[in-house]
Amino acid sequence: MLVITDPQKMRKYCASISRKGLSIGFVPTMGALHEGHLELVKAAKKRSDVVIVSIFVNPIQFGPKEDFKKYPRDIKKDAALLKKEKVDVLFNPSVEDMIPKDLLSYVEVGKMGDVLCGTSRPGHFRGVATIVAKFFNIIRPDTAFFGAKDFQQQAIIRKMVKDLDMGVEIVTVATVREKSGLAKSSRNAYLSAEQRAQAPALYASLLLAKRMIAAGEKSASKIIVAIKKNILSRTDFVVDYVSIVDSETFEEKKTIKRPVLIAVAAYLGKTRLIDNILV
Amino acid sequence: MLVITDPQKMRKYCASISRKGLSIGFVPTMGALHEGHLELVKAAKKRSDVVIVSIFVNPIQFGPKEDFKKYPRDIKKDAALLKKEKVDVLFNPSVEDMIPKDLLSYVEVGKMGDVLCGTSRPGHFRGVATIVAKFFNIIRPDTAFFGAKDFQQQAIIRKMVKDLDMGVEIVTVATVREKSGLAKSSRNAYLSAEQRAQAPALYASLLLAKRMIAAGEKSASKIIVAIKKNILSRTDFVVDYVSIVDSETFEEKKTIKRPVLIAVAAYLGKTRLIDNILV
């Protein structure tokens, strides 16, 4: 596995690959890799001649009071995992190279970035869209792979690619869950044993919503109240949002008309967890 | 000369050119071509294997009270001029294809877009940056050519390319002027005979600034007052701004320390003209 840190070297390498007529599959990550990431890598391996994985903890997608500094980093362990998956290139650039102090240009994604996670994380999706645009411009992949756990993220990247004619195919890969139902997340590492025991309630709340809809419930607000009252209030979770929205535009639904996205974000202590389900 | 209107056809054509190892030079225009544009084409011909010129009157760079509807359009005349210059491809997409109604993603250029022309044209440079990013993503040129008359525009595009790692070389071509000194501009077509006789005062005001600086004047405000008082107030020009700024950051200069950009925008009737000089 080649490890490249210099963006200019990465650009040259990718240009030479494309000139040979080989396809590039790209998996952007912030490291702290888990099985969810490895599923993205496997999907990329299946569909691409050359697979590039980036590890970059992107400062511009963290708010000033968020966990940028303490976000888990273990590049050796991550590199070993990627090597085992036969990844071709690990791209691991520096913050200085990717986000210079005089950076002025950003990709804005409009109202899609202002709802759901955007409400409590202002500027987050601008930071995500901007760094992904930069990676796409350096690597010029044929296909890029995102996880369904970050549903709003993949939808925004899809929209950005379409709006700005980026010509990258976006593939969304299903969320990988523990046996308990808890979605795999790098931030699960923050949880205490007690919190970890409670964390599956997040997915349980989505399954409750699914059962209610299957049983004919049409009122979004009734489902949201049920989730909060019957599941999350019985744990230490502090709800950020429970939302039922159109899965493409993220507009709030008052009446259930499938397909809908049910998305939830909640804090266990200082750890913010998210999950979602398409019904 | 090939004429392409479909962005997907344009993308495929450009990809096939790049795969052959040929370089692409790109000249984005809004049509109503004059000698200034043709100088861009000539520069592109010198440096590129294949030259692509776009003609697209971009609605998102016009304010609601600006001249989008009446902006001069003469595609037949323009196409004949480009053919004569041996341009390889004219890319002439529709507004519907380039700016669909559900467009949400934009490229923002921060404070560089909020000064000079950005003050009286809010959102203008966001519209310029976004459409140029879209063209760059479709065409993936090696080099793109911009005129120095729109100095702020080329500086912002340069910054966007650097910030977002677009990998396009930006070449700025000197302003083409009439014998009177008036900068060639598509908007000169709006001027009456009387206004046209007064229009060279804009460049004359820049030459006055240049002479004052050569003579040792260090005060930006004195130069600006002199321009307004001794030249522009003797015409029908209504000044939008006269500014002396850093040529890269566009920060206002109080004291002249070369190199500086002296930029002016003023209205003759409803027609807004701009000009600038690097001293």
Note down, in words, how this protein is organized:
2 copies of one chain form a homodimer. The first copy, chain A, is α/β, with parallel strands linked by helices and 279 residues long. The first copy, chain A, has 2 domains: 2-173, 3-Layer(aba) Sandwich (Rossmann fold), CATH 3.40.50.620; 186-274, Pantoate-beta-alanine ligase, C-terminal domain (Pantoate--beta-alanine Ligase, Chain: A,domain 2, 2-Layer Sandwich), CATH 3.30.1300.10. Helix content of chain A is 38%, strand content 20%. The first copy, chain A, has 10 helices and 10 strands. In chain A, the strands form 2 sheets. In chain A, strands 1-4-3-2-6-7 form a 6-stranded parallel β-sheet, sandwiched between helices. In chain A, strand 3, helix 3 and strand 4 form a beta-alpha-beta unit. In chain A, helix 6 packs across helix 7 (151-163). Chain A is globular and about 55 Å long. The N and C termini of chain A lie far apart (40 Å). The model of chain A has no long low-confidence stretch (mean pLDDT 97).
